[in-house]
Design goal:
The structure holds two protein chains of two kinds.
Chain A lengths: L1 H38 L4 H6 L2 H10 L1 E7 L2 E7 L5 H8 L18 E4 L2 E4 L12 E3 L12 H8 L9 H13 L6 H7 L10 H14 L4
Parallel strand pairs in A: 1-5
Antiparallel strand pairs in A: 1-2, 3-4, 3-5
Helix pairs in contact in A: 1-3, 5-8
Chain B lengths: L12 H6 L14 E7 L5 E7 L1 H5 L3 E6 L32 E2 L5 E7 L2 H8 L3 E6 L17 H5 L8 E3 L11 E8 L11 E8 L2 E6 L4 H12 L6 E4 L15 H13 L3 E4 L15 E9 L5 E13 L10 H5 L5 E11 L10 H20 L4 H7 L4 E2 L4 E2 L5 H12 L11 E3 L2 E13 L5 E7 L5 E4 L9 H13 L6 E4 L16 H23 L2 H4 L7 E2 L3 E4 L3 E5 H7 L5 E7 L11 E12 L6 E11 L6 H20 L5 E2 L4 E2 L18 E5 L23 H13 L10 H5 L1
Helix pairs in contact in B: 8-16, 11-12, 15-16
The chains are: A alpha+beta, B alpha+beta.
Chain lengths: 217, 738
Amino acid sequence: MAEEKACNASSPDAEANRQHNEARRDFLKQSSILTALALAPATVLKAADSKWDEKVAEKFEKVPLTLEINGKKVQLSVEPRVTLLDLLREQLDLTGTKKGCDYGQCGACTVHSDGERINACLTFAVMQEGKKITTIEGLADGEKLHPMQEAFVKHDGFQCGYCTPGQIMSAVACIREGHANSEDEIREYMSGNICRCGAYSNIVNAITEVKNGGQKV
Amino acid sequence: MKQVGEPMSRVDGRLKVTGAAKYSAEIQLPDLVHAVLVESTIAKGRIKHIDSKLAERAPGVLAVLSHVNAPKVPGYAQRDHPTEPSTRGQPLRVFYDDKVYSNGQPIAMVVADTLERARYAAKLVKVEYTKEEHQTNFHANVEKAVLPSQAKKNPKSPLADYVRGTEDAYKTAAIKLESEYVMPSETHNPMELQAITAHWEATDKLTVYDKTQAVKGTQRAFANEWKIPAENVKVIAKFVGGAFGNGLHTWPHETAAIIAAKKVNRPVKLMLTREQMFTMVGYRPYTWQKVGMSATPDGKLTAITHEAIGQTSSYEEFTESTLQQTKMMYACPNITTRYRILPLDVSTPIWMRGPGEATGAFALESAMDEMAHQLNLDPIEFRMRNHTDTDPDKKLPWSTKYLKECMQLGAERIGWKNRSLTPGAVRAGEWQVGYGMGVGTFGANQGGAGARARLLPDGTIIIQSATTDIGPGTGTAMVQIAADALGITPNRIKFELGDSAFPNSPSQGGSSTISSVGSAVKEVCFTLKQELQKLGGAAFSGAKTENVMIGEEGISLPGNAAAVSFADLLQQHQLESLVVTAEAEPGKERRHYSLYSFSVHFVEVQVHPVTGVIRITKIVSCADAGTIINEKTAANQMIGGAVGGIGMALMEAAVIDHRYGRYVTKDLAEYHVPVHGDIPKAEVIFINKPDLISNPLGTKGIGEIALIGMAPAVANAVFNATGKRIRNLPITPDKLLI
């Protein structure tokens, strides 16, 4: 019972919020339809039939966004609530970046933003305006794997492969940050990337080898 | 060069490190839409009303479905409770009626054109309930535990009460112990969230890209649900992002996605949230155990009584082999086991890596350590004194058993000689140091499996079987097996899996994939050679098939006699390619033996006496698993099991707030699994001696024994470090400070 009360206690806010959103949407719909009406009355009936009002409203709800993803500049129009992770996976077919929790607790979605590792699930795409995003798909040099990718294959730094892109992106940043000077330091600074298969020893071996190899990462 | 045993890098490694491997929520299909589930917020009762108006009006929404309006699933059993044979029965019938069996049960679903829109609209669905009083508290309800129906029907069932010698003989012994142990619920939580992309390609033709450990089993399940022929259901699982058992069953969310795809007539993608992974796809059941044990002063076991009660749901009986190893592990004249299940208002559990055996081993191997301590004996010596050279349960010889060797090798490697018989005697600075070990065992299972091989004119060989790879490196091992069977280099062979259209294979469970599918692959390679020999005509007809050599471009006999190219052979017989199939069944000789894999896990721990912080400083796992096909991937699997066992020992517990019957640990910040910082370098030792009774490859299986026995090893090490015996997992610092 206490639980229901708790729900009720918070609901007026939520309700007001919802009403606000709905109102805003209705306003957008009406104003855009009015605009359309003023400009081209003949098309309006047809527009309503095809849910064009929705489509027009949708335009107002999206914001322009420019990103450089894996070296390519992309111009997008996205809803502000779309996370970088969902943008990559659902709209750009860059599914190498994985969803493991959506709360920044597992690291599967680790990408680089202007060279720094971030959890793509913890940032709205629009917050990355103008940034250079690198995903696992952009790490290799064409057909030539990045040294960290090579090392993960060699040391079997994965099993199911699902956390792997995040581990690799994190590992590269870990070395760049200067946090790979010992196995213990690697373990500490890689602890945001969970591997449920438990390939940790092998991942540490891979990172150690790349670090000691002195190759540019 | 022989490939089996080589540490070959994974054949799919490149796909995994470049992000090119596609998992089940990563399939692009035209007109694909998204489904999001709405869960119950009560643990028991009925749905009074679902108000979906707001959700339906929300932008982009195509459908809001629940039991009120969802298309009927024709194969749902029309009885009150869906229980069928235990565990294999029909799971919760999603959107079937207004009944709520557990908190977090899927009760409605929104389908929309984008994920964000579906997620938003799902929050607008309002549900009213008629609540009933729920029971989720294990200990408050323990009196209601029952014998599983399988055991009621069949007193010879492995789940039935078992007495060898005198019942409860430990009670009258002079040297005895009686201890109770608790294994909390654990959730598999693979990194990939459970996901399915469902697509009705025609009204009676279904294709699903699904996270499953059994493409054939899933195909059968959906064919039954939708009353369509199995061949009309295509199940694809090329990559599975971990599963650890929760892909052994089909779950309500899968049927929900299929219902959605039917309703909106478009492909539907559904990926669970991390919270939903706690309530919708099974878990290791909360289990209470009691061990009574007695021994002679010189360390011979005289009796063990092992009882267990495992949690299940109110609508399905889930059982597992919690007590099996107690019947066979040690030479002991008097054994009693009693297994019960306790139905609660929760979702149904499912086997989780090293299923019941890992739970049972925690109790048995902890008790062995307790008894060794009581006798002032080294725990390894105590186990050596109770070693058995035949299976005392089945009264059969072991096919192979190198358990003693495992103990010796592991003890050496961990530095067992540094262990003191007296707890708390060894220190490293301010930290207390302890050593512990635990034994694991699991049946060396094999199921019937098939494989198909296709030879192309350029000499490429494609082998297919409807198995899956949840991470052990199935494809890599199969390529190695095939390379040896054909005598060619691995890069000529491609192994394909994860498609229900391929020849039959059992689910990837019970540590049996290499034994089952590997045997079929070996067989199909031989069949391919036979066929090539036949096609070769007179020049080859007198030769032994074993002597037919497969080269880069064609076949020949020793000394390059009678060489003929693949292209010519195929052309002569007007074939585009040569396709053969074969099946491998478990050998009859297996019946005369008892077949088990064994493992011994060793750990060194340090415990901080002021804070109770426990750190694992060394891990050594030794396995008697028969032939090791790939040293690198097999060792990885062992390390992974050890990590899982450490999670079990030190951190994992899915906790319910019984006021609401709802999990309070619903994400990875609350439900802790081991991270990099928790795990030191782990060492693995393989005995690597073939067990040719098991199958022609000599394998016995690794997946489960990698974990079974690790949790007690840690608990025993903590006792050795501190003198504190924790029988209630996980061993968190607070328990050491009390």
